[in-house]
Protein backbone atom coordinates (compact mmCIF):
# COMPACT_ATOMS: atom_id res chain seq x y z
CA UNK A 1 0.00 0.00 0.00
CA UNK A 2 1.36 3.43 -0.98
CA UNK A 3 -0.08 6.42 0.84
CA UNK A 4 0.24 10.15 1.41
CA UNK A 5 -0.69 11.81 4.69
CA UNK A 6 -1.57 15.48 4.50
CA UNK A 7 -2.60 18.17 6.98
CA UNK A 8 -1.47 21.52 8.35
CA UNK A 9 1.55 21.77 10.70
CA UNK A 10 0.49 20.10 13.95
CA UNK A 11 -2.47 18.27 12.40
CA UNK A 12 -0.98 14.96 13.55
CA UNK A 13 0.75 13.63 10.41
CA UNK A 14 3.76 12.36 12.37
CA UNK A 15 1.68 11.00 15.26
CA UNK A 16 -0.78 9.13 13.04
CA UNK A 17 1.97 8.26 10.54
CA UNK A 18 3.90 6.34 13.22
CA UNK A 19 0.78 4.32 14.07
CA UNK A 20 -0.07 3.62 10.42
CA UNK A 21 3.40 2.36 9.49
CA UNK A 22 3.52 0.18 12.59
CA UNK A 23 0.16 -1.40 11.83
CA UNK A 24 0.63 -1.86 8.07
CA UNK A 25 4.41 -2.40 7.88
CA UNK A 26 4.97 0.58 5.57
CA UNK A 27 8.07 2.76 5.29
CA UNK A 28 7.56 6.22 6.81
CA UNK A 29 9.09 8.92 4.63
CA UNK A 30 8.88 12.32 6.30
CA UNK A 31 10.64 15.13 4.45
CA UNK A 32 10.72 17.19 7.68
CA UNK A 33 12.47 14.31 9.50
CA UNK A 34 14.92 13.89 6.58
CA UNK A 35 15.80 17.59 6.72
CA UNK A 36 16.21 17.50 10.52
CA UNK A 37 18.53 14.49 10.22
CA UNK A 38 20.60 16.33 7.58
CA UNK A 39 20.77 19.39 9.87
CA UNK A 40 21.93 17.23 12.80
CA UNK A 41 24.62 15.69 10.56
CA UNK A 42 25.62 19.18 9.35
CA UNK A 43 25.57 18.19 5.70
CA UNK A 44 25.60 20.84 2.98
CA UNK A 45 21.95 20.08 2.19
CA UNK A 46 21.11 20.29 5.90
CA UNK A 47 22.65 23.75 6.21
CA UNK A 48 20.70 24.95 3.18
CA UNK A 49 17.43 23.44 4.49
CA UNK A 50 17.98 25.01 7.92
CA UNK A 51 18.06 28.51 6.44
CA UNK A 52 14.48 27.98 5.19
CA UNK A 53 13.07 25.88 8.03
CA UNK A 54 14.15 28.39 10.70
CA UNK A 55 12.05 31.04 8.95
CA UNK A 56 9.04 28.75 8.47
CA UNK A 57 9.52 28.81 4.69
CA UNK A 58 9.53 25.82 2.36
CA UNK A 59 12.83 24.34 1.23
CA UNK A 60 13.18 24.85 -2.57
CA UNK A 61 11.37 22.26 -4.70
CA UNK A 62 14.46 21.00 -6.54
CA UNK A 63 16.13 20.03 -3.26
CA UNK A 64 13.03 18.38 -1.81
CA UNK A 65 12.07 16.58 -5.03
CA UNK A 66 15.62 15.22 -5.27
CA UNK A 67 15.69 13.62 -1.82
CA UNK A 68 12.22 12.10 -2.18
CA UNK A 69 12.94 10.69 -5.63
CA UNK A 70 16.15 9.12 -4.38
CA UNK A 71 14.40 7.52 -1.38
CA UNK A 72 11.52 6.19 -3.50
CA UNK A 73 13.88 4.47 -5.91
CA UNK A 74 15.36 2.27 -3.17
CA UNK A 75 14.45 -1.40 -3.27
CA UNK A 76 12.54 -1.63 0.04
CA UNK A 77 9.87 0.79 -1.19
CA UNK A 78 8.52 -1.56 -3.87
CA UNK A 79 8.64 -4.45 -1.39
CA UNK A 80 6.90 -2.85 1.60
CA UNK A 81 5.04 0.24 0.39
CA UNK A 82 5.33 3.74 1.83
CA UNK A 83 3.64 6.53 3.73
CA UNK A 84 4.82 9.95 2.57
CA UNK A 85 4.44 12.59 5.31
CA UNK A 86 4.85 16.31 4.54
CA UNK A 87 5.31 15.83 0.80
CA UNK A 88 4.12 17.04 -1.67
CA UNK A 89 3.64 20.56 -0.36
CA UNK A 90 3.53 22.51 -3.63
CA UNK A 91 1.79 21.71 -6.88
CA UNK A 92 5.24 21.40 -8.54
CA UNK A 93 6.15 18.74 -5.96
CA UNK A 94 2.89 16.90 -6.70
CA UNK A 95 3.78 16.87 -10.40
CA UNK A 96 7.33 15.70 -9.66
CA UNK A 97 5.92 12.92 -7.47
CA UNK A 98 3.51 11.80 -10.20
CA UNK A 99 6.42 11.62 -12.66
CA UNK A 100 8.71 9.78 -10.21
CA UNK A 101 6.06 7.19 -9.32
CA UNK A 102 5.12 6.60 -12.91
CA UNK A 103 8.80 6.11 -13.88
CA UNK A 104 9.11 3.56 -11.06
CA UNK A 105 5.77 1.94 -12.03
CA UNK A 106 4.44 2.51 -8.52
CA UNK A 107 0.80 3.37 -7.95
CA UNK A 108 -0.52 5.69 -5.26
CA UNK A 109 -3.39 4.01 -3.38
CA UNK A 110 -4.73 6.81 -1.22
CA UNK A 111 -4.31 10.23 0.39
CA UNK A 112 -5.28 10.72 4.03
CA UNK A 113 -6.13 14.33 4.75
CA UNK A 114 -6.27 15.19 8.46
CA UNK A 115 -8.64 18.10 8.77
CA UNK A 116 -8.15 20.31 11.84
CA UNK A 117 -9.23 23.66 13.09
CA UNK A 118 -6.19 25.95 12.47
CA UNK A 119 -6.84 27.73 15.78
CA UNK A 120 -5.95 24.61 17.78
CA UNK A 121 -2.58 24.17 16.08
CA UNK A 122 -0.53 26.81 17.89
CA UNK A 123 -1.39 25.09 21.18
CA UNK A 124 -0.49 21.67 19.78
CA UNK A 125 2.87 22.86 18.44
CA UNK A 126 3.88 24.93 21.46
CA UNK A 127 3.27 21.91 23.76
CA UNK A 128 4.99 19.35 21.54
CA UNK A 129 7.95 17.55 23.12
CA UNK A 130 10.15 14.93 21.46
CA UNK A 131 12.03 12.17 23.27
CA UNK A 132 15.76 12.70 22.64
CA UNK A 133 16.63 9.02 22.55
CA UNK A 134 13.78 7.53 20.48
CA UNK A 135 12.51 10.55 18.55
CA UNK A 136 8.97 9.74 19.71
CA UNK A 137 6.59 12.71 19.75
CA UNK A 138 4.45 13.64 22.77
CA UNK A 139 2.47 16.64 23.99
CA UNK A 140 2.82 18.15 27.47
CA UNK A 141 -0.97 18.17 27.95
CA UNK A 142 -2.67 16.15 25.19
CA UNK A 143 -0.33 13.17 25.06
CA UNK A 144 2.11 13.27 27.98
CA UNK A 145 4.84 10.65 28.45
CA UNK A 146 4.60 8.43 31.57
CA UNK A 147 3.90 10.24 34.87
CA UNK A 148 6.94 11.78 36.53
CA UNK A 149 8.91 12.02 33.28
CA UNK A 150 12.15 13.99 33.26
CA UNK A 151 11.82 17.11 31.06
CA UNK A 152 15.56 16.93 30.33
CA UNK A 153 15.00 13.76 28.30
CA UNK A 154 12.85 15.73 25.83
CA UNK A 155 13.38 18.66 23.47
CA UNK A 156 11.20 21.14 21.60
CA UNK A 157 11.57 21.80 17.87
CA UNK A 158 13.30 25.08 16.93
CA UNK A 159 10.53 25.87 14.43
CA UNK A 160 7.79 25.49 17.08
CA UNK A 161 8.38 29.05 18.33
CA UNK A 162 5.16 31.13 17.96
CA UNK A 163 6.61 33.51 15.28
CA UNK A 164 7.78 30.62 13.10
CA UNK A 165 4.57 28.64 13.62
CA UNK A 166 2.51 31.55 12.30
CA UNK A 167 4.56 31.68 9.09
CA UNK A 168 4.44 27.87 8.69
CA UNK A 169 0.66 27.92 8.97
CA UNK A 170 0.29 30.78 6.44
CA UNK A 171 2.57 29.04 3.93
CA UNK A 172 0.82 25.68 4.28
CA UNK A 173 -2.72 27.09 4.16
CA UNK A 174 -2.00 28.88 0.88
CA UNK A 175 -0.17 25.96 -0.77
CA UNK A 176 -2.30 23.05 0.49
CA UNK A 177 -5.64 23.53 -1.28
CA UNK A 178 -4.47 23.03 -4.91
CA UNK A 179 -2.62 19.85 -3.94
CA UNK A 180 -5.71 18.34 -2.35
CA UNK A 181 -7.70 19.30 -5.47
CA UNK A 182 -5.10 17.55 -7.61
CA UNK A 183 -5.69 14.27 -5.73
CA UNK A 184 -9.45 14.74 -5.32
CA UNK A 185 -9.73 14.71 -9.12
CA UNK A 186 -8.28 11.21 -9.01
CA UNK A 187 -10.65 10.17 -6.23
CA UNK A 188 -7.77 9.36 -3.88
CA UNK A 189 -8.56 11.58 -0.89
CA UNK A 190 -10.17 10.50 2.40
CA UNK A 191 -10.87 13.37 4.79
CA UNK A 192 -10.36 12.51 8.45
CA UNK A 193 -11.77 14.55 11.36
CA UNK A 194 -8.61 15.60 13.20
CA UNK A 195 -10.31 17.53 16.01
CA UNK A 196 -10.68 14.49 18.24
CA UNK A 197 -8.46 12.36 20.48
CA UNK A 198 -5.39 10.73 18.94
CA UNK A 199 -6.91 7.22 19.31
CA UNK A 200 -10.21 8.26 17.71
CA UNK A 201 -8.40 9.84 14.76
CA UNK A 202 -6.46 6.61 14.30
CA UNK A 203 -9.64 4.50 14.48
CA UNK A 204 -11.11 6.57 11.62
CA UNK A 205 -7.91 6.18 9.58
CA UNK A 206 -7.89 2.42 10.12
CA UNK A 207 -11.49 2.23 8.92
CA UNK A 208 -10.64 4.25 5.80
CA UNK A 209 -7.59 2.10 5.06
CA UNK A 210 -9.45 -1.18 5.48
CA UNK A 211 -11.78 -0.01 2.70
CA UNK A 212 -8.75 0.65 0.50
CA UNK A 213 -7.10 -2.72 0.91
P1 LIG B 1 7.49 19.04 8.95
O1 LIG B 1 8.39 18.38 9.91
O2 LIG B 1 6.78 18.21 7.95
O3 LIG B 1 6.48 19.92 9.77
P2 LIG B 1 4.94 20.31 9.54
O4 LIG B 1 4.27 19.96 8.29
O5 LIG B 1 4.92 21.72 9.90
O6 LIG B 1 4.19 19.35 10.49
P3 LIG B 1 4.59 18.96 11.93
O7 LIG B 1 5.61 17.87 11.91
O8 LIG B 1 4.91 20.19 12.74
O9 LIG B 1 3.18 18.45 12.49
P4 LIG B 1 2.49 17.02 12.38
O10 LIG B 1 1.30 17.14 11.51
O11 LIG B 1 3.48 15.96 12.07
O12 LIG B 1 1.98 16.90 13.88
P5 LIG B 1 2.45 15.94 15.08
O13 LIG B 1 1.95 14.56 14.84
O14 LIG B 1 3.88 16.12 15.41
O15 LIG B 1 8.29 20.17 8.16
C1 LIG B 1 9.11 21.09 8.84
C2 LIG B 1 9.74 22.07 7.87
O16 LIG B 1 10.58 21.36 6.93
C3 LIG B 1 8.76 22.86 6.98
O17 LIG B 1 8.27 24.02 7.63
C4 LIG B 1 9.64 23.19 5.78
O18 LIG B 1 10.50 24.26 6.05
C5 LIG B 1 10.47 21.92 5.63
N1 LIG B 1 9.80 20.94 4.75
C6 LIG B 1 9.29 19.73 5.09
N2 LIG B 1 8.73 19.11 4.04
C7 LIG B 1 8.87 19.97 2.98
C8 LIG B 1 8.46 19.93 1.62
N3 LIG B 1 7.77 18.89 1.12
N4 LIG B 1 8.78 20.99 0.84
C9 LIG B 1 9.49 22.05 1.29
N5 LIG B 1 9.86 22.16 2.59
C10 LIG B 1 9.57 21.13 3.43
O19 LIG B 1 1.55 16.56 16.26
C11 LIG B 1 1.80 17.88 16.76
C12 LIG B 1 1.57 17.91 18.29
O20 LIG B 1 0.16 17.72 18.54
C13 LIG B 1 2.29 16.79 19.06
O21 LIG B 1 2.68 17.29 20.30
C14 LIG B 1 1.21 15.71 19.23
O22 LIG B 1 1.40 14.94 20.41
C15 LIG B 1 -0.07 16.54 19.33
N6 LIG B 1 -1.24 15.88 18.73
C16 LIG B 1 -1.27 15.10 17.60
N7 LIG B 1 -2.54 14.70 17.36
C17 LIG B 1 -3.31 15.22 18.35
C18 LIG B 1 -4.72 15.15 18.63
N8 LIG B 1 -5.56 14.45 17.87
N9 LIG B 1 -5.17 15.83 19.71
C19 LIG B 1 -4.30 16.56 20.51
N10 LIG B 1 -2.98 16.64 20.28
C20 LIG B 1 -2.48 15.99 19.21
MG1 LIG C 1 5.53 15.89 11.56
TrEMBL record:
CDD domains xrefs: ADK
Segments of this protein annotated with the region NMP: 30-59
Residues at which AMP binds: 31, 36, 57-59, 86-89, 93, 157, 168
PROSITE patterns given in the database record: ADENYLATE_KINASE
Any GO BP: AMP salvage
Protein's cellular compartments: Cytoplasm
Enzyme class: transferase
Recorded domain comment: Consists of three domains, a large central CORE domain and two small peripheral domains, NMPbind and LID, which undergo movements during catalysis. The LID domain closes over the site of phosphoryl transfer upon ATP binding. Assembling and dissambling the active center during each catalytic cycle provides an effective means to prevent ATP hydrolysis.
Protein name (record): Adenylate kinase
Amino acid sequence: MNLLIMGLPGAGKGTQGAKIVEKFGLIHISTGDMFRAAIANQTEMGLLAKSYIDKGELVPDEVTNGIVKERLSQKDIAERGFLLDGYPRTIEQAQALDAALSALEIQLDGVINIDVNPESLVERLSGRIIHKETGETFHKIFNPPAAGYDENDYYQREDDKPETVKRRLDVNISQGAPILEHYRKENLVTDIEGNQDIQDVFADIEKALSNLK
